[in-house]
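Q: Please design a sequence for this.
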């Protein structure tokens, strides 16, 4: 299992590395992942299960968001697009033929946020 977080909001990633809860100052378009720390119990479980961590940039989250909107016709929130962005960016380890699944949930995104992410796609379509 791979946990995906934004580079600017990496509480679980830092907690796994430190093997304990670490406070961070979260800042990401994926506001559903903007936790100021990861709890002790999730970190302990993550360590026990050998969960890996991958970080994605804001641009990779936006690519995942646009992919979900254009190809899957899903109006997901940026937090849900983080995992898709990681897959598209090649940040998920090759598991030798394993099936990769990404949990995509929620549509809790402000209209101005969604249009800001989708705007570059509209410019590409213009002559």
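A: Design:
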């Amino acid at each position: 299992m791979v946990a995906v977080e934004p580079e600017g909001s990496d509480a679980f990633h830092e907690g796994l590395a430190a093997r304990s809860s670490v406070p961070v100052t979260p800042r990401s378009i994926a506001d559903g992942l903007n936790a100021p720390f990861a709890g002790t119990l999730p970190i302990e479980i993550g360590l026990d299960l050998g969960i890996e961590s991958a970080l994605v940039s804001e641009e990779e989250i936006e690519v995942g968001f646009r992919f979900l909107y254009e190809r899957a016709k899903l109006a997901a929130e940026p937090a849900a697009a983080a995992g898709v962005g990681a897959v598209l960016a090649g940040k998920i380890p090759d598991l030798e033929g394993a099936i990769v699944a990404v949990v995509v949930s929620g549509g809790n995104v402000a209209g101005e946020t969604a249009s800001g992410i989708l705007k570059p796609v509209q410019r590409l379509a213009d002559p």
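Q: Thanks. Anything notable?
A: Strands lie at 2-6, 52-56. The first strand starts at residue 2 and ends at 6.
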